[in-house]
Design brief:
135 residues; alpha+beta; 5-stranded antiparallel β-sheet; 4-stranded antiparallel β-sheet; 1 helix; 21% helix; globular
Length: 135
């Protein structure tokens, strides 16, 4: 092999090594969410326990005078109650219609929720209730 060819081959090998070193970290950095888990709608559900009502107020989640916020993992507000109950979602604008949420079944109680919007849930009657909410 001629001296010029040897230098060219060495330069080419060196350039290839530099390219490999420079591209490997970039590829690893571009890997989306390596090790991160994306939450699904129901996978983001949280447990709730409603505050008991009284003669003038229904059972309520969260406690009276407080709001909970739509996390945005779902397009709707969903509930899975531990007992069949009539449920009502209230936003800053109004309290919406009563919906029957059957025990142990996911039920959409408000459609078209907006991430970051505040709401609370009324349960018909004074008895407390618990279960899961996914929003």
């Amino acid at each position: 092999m001629m001296a010029g060819s040897k230098r060219f081959a060495a330069a080419l090998a060196g350039a290839a090594a530099v390219c490999t070193v420079l591209t490997a970290p970039a590829q690893a950095a571009q890997a989306p969410g390596a090790g991160a888990q994306v939450k699904s709608c129901y996978g983001s559900a949280f447990a709730y326990t409603a505050q008991a009502g009284d003669a003038t107020h229904p059972a309520h989640y969260p406690t009276y005078g407080n709001w909970t916020t739509v996390a945005g993992y779902c397009n709707d507000i969903n509930i899975k109650t531990n007992a069949t109950r009539q449920v009502q979602v209230c936003t800053h604008n109004k309290c919406h219609g009563w919906i029957t949420a059957s025990k142990g079944v996911w039920t959409v109680i408000f459609s078209g929720s907006t991430p970051g919007a505040e709401y609370y849930v009324n349960f018909k009657g004074a008895a407390t209730n618990s279960g899961l909410i996914a929003d």
